[in-house]
Amino acid sequence: MSTTTVATDQKWWSGGRSPFNVEYGKLMMWYFLMSDAFTFGAFLISYGTIRFSSNGWPDANHVFQSFPFLGSGLPLLFVSLMTFILIVSSVTMVLAVKAGHERRKADVVKYLFWTIIGGIAFLSCQAWEWTHLHHEGAWWGSNPFPNADGSLSTTTNFSNFFFTITGFHGFHVFSGVIINIIMLIMTLTGVFEKRGHYLMIEKAGLYWHFVDLVWVFVFTCFYLV
Amino acid sequence: MEHTIDHSAEKFEAKNEVMKVTIILSVLTIVELALGFLMYKMFPEPGFARNFIKGTIIILMLSKAYYIVAYFMHLGHEIKNLIMTIVVPLILFVWFIIAFLYDGHSFNVNRNTYDRYKNEKGQPHQMNPNAVEEKAEKPKSVE
Amino acid sequence: MSNEEMLQAQTSTGQVVEVPHHDHHGEHHHHETFITKYVFSQDHKMIAKQFLVTGMIWAILGGLMSVLFRLQLAYPDATFPWLETLLGKWAKGGHLSAEAYYALVTTHGTVLVFFVLTAGLSGTFANFLIPLQIGARDMASPFLNMLSYWFFFTAGVVMLSSLFVETGPFSGGWTAYPPLSALGSASPGSKTGMDLWLISMALFVVSSLLGGLNYIATILNMRTKGMSMTRLPLTIWALFFTAILGVLSFPVLLSGFILLIFDRNFGTSFYLSDIYVNGVGALPNEGGSAILYQHLFWFLGHPEVYIIILPAMGIVSEVMSTNARKPIFGYMAMIGSLFAIAVLAFLVWAHHMFVSGLNPFLGSFFVLLTLLIAVPSAIKVFNWLTTLWRGNIRFTPGMLFSIGFVSMFISGGLTGIFLGNSALDIYLHDTYFIVAHFHIVMGVAGMFGMYAGIYHWFPKMFGRYLNNTLAYLHFWITFTGAYLIFWPMHYEGLAGMPRRYYDFSNWESFKMFGGVNIFISVVAMIVFAAQIMFLINFFYSVFKGKKVTSQNPWGSNTLEWTTPILPGHGNWVGEIPEVHRWAYDYGKDGKDFISQTTPVGAEESSH
Question: What is the ipTM of this complex?
């Protein structure tokens, strides 16, 4: 911390400055993400609660086993691709934020562009997966998949939760892509250059990583355990 | 308000930290996928072994979350107070999860035991073995 | 003697501060149109007033609803032709229909809990007091602050419109439990009315989230020089914890509502299982859990009652210390107990569900955690009482309402200990005992905190005084009235009289309460009339009240009284003052009060 060499607690908290050394926008973004974590947390915990109150549940290896152009019988391959796309887009976002801090405009544009491409790729994958599952007969209120033990599933809640929660996550990815596009336009038109800092990109980055973070949980809950 | 925001260089390490975290995340994901894939093959019956693997996957998931939050979201490099205000409220999730899941399970046991009209098939787990007999003979008034 | 003269006489040792003539801070003096100043204002003081007035409108509507259904409970056989004029088909022949009764009860609950005691209370005082008391020119993000109000306003419009749809507003209780709320075929109110109810509540969640994030960021980041966290007035601490509670618990409610929307419209079975509807037949939904909704609802629902009571506690602490001319007793203990209440708020939700089919073993943990709340609550009560002890008390209307708040909090809190025990709750659940408990401890106490705040900060808000005679009349009618309404309900509840019943005259066991019910309803109408009197006083005084002539009429330490009488946009003329001490140096070293901006003298004793 260059401005204050003595960073005692007293100094941080005594007013007239941010106790966390961050501007308010970033603080609000962090607390918004906390709040959103509780939204997703509540969804996933509800999913867990319903699973715990059901006798049987489908096996993800049987449900998610198709890959475009390669056919079926490839469990979890497609979702691995989706996960990888999202991780890579998170990496390019980190690089964009880093470039912003060093005020390298060309690099910010490059990495933001790749992040947006990654986001769109993820959404396209999800669209394919939804369409595919829909063709197999899964939708809100209908579930064709048998339980892991082979018995017939009498509740549709596997599909219900899958579409609701991945849909809500997809909605977050979508809004993240929109935010990133706005950031890209603002960078290209030199708004941040004029402002003297690229802090907006950092906040957009936080949101984008959060979307990635949520996917880690959604992925584990629906595809693995 | 006048704020002093530092953009000092040491906050932003070399690219290789990013690369390192990317590799760790990828490896963890592959291990998770392998476990998830093999779980039902190796242990077709539900039981301790399968739950153990599920627990392992969840621990891997949490460590992935740690790497994303600490490095990608840069929380690890913020000052301690900020880290605490973010991390401490998340402890609420512990009781949130325990209470919800425990009650979800209890709801299932109750229905398997007492609700003779419960339509759901599948293997009833952790049910009182005597209850199966009782269930068939229970008069309607018990509900 | 007028307010001001009385106070001036008592605070003769206080500093005399020159009143600056121009109200606007130089930098912020720009042209404002009616729209930017009064409608889409980004100034925190105007937004606070918008929240206050909107909250008042909702309080009148919600209160009027309670008068209507109390009329039904008092005179189940009588007919009132004017009711048909007012409600049309909902009161055919001047007799309130059962559907209308349930719709009124539901809307009364929703509106008062969310629109009046959440938005109206913390929306008003968080917006008004946070920048003024921490020494900031405005909120961290004035724009999001404005959006917060307009989301709240839109939520209100949607809720209002639900009153006018053909099938009527939602009528399944403010908690909206499925399956009643999930199935349109369950009751007329569960059709369009419920969809509008859900949309309204979703908008409300967005509003409270935007507001809450702003409050937290402002309190943390925008404090003036010297205003360390432990020098903050207790109002700010209380509003800070309130905002945290809202930010962490409202999203869970939103998740629950989203699942409910899917259950209603998209054929899912999150909350539905094994249901047979008369006239429709057996439903295909299988595997859901209605208890899950209750868990999700009360995960917000319990913090929500603290969202209501914490701001009231903060306001009361501040008003009480100022008017007892004594430092608040146990400042750090007050913060600690607020914190403890905020943490426990998240751990106790299932005590609302002891009879829902909750696992009894799990329930016992909730009993334990619930009873723990008594500890911080008792600390707070003790500290308020010891603040009053040997104080030089000025019985201003704000002070009376603060003392009334403590009284209500004790009475309602004690019955909370009864209800926290699952063994007792199984008997008392869904009786009038519950109604009495939560109205006293949350409803009336929350309103008292709000009134204390309004009476205390009215001079700062509008630069004028409220009429004192009407204020005292308002207090005594409301105070005695509230006890007369809710005290008898405890006995009804102990006798087993269930809440939410439309007509008790058919039950032999509850016939004996006919007279009590009439008594309660009559008092409720008188108390409602007293609130109308308050509103007349309020709006008359906004325009015609006696003008405030001194900058610090209550002789208070906090920063808002160092601004001009009617602060302009930006609050302070020139520099924001620096803070040198805590907010509670009353009656110290022979001085009546020492403002937070006064530097600590060399020979001064430390607090």
Answer: 0.93
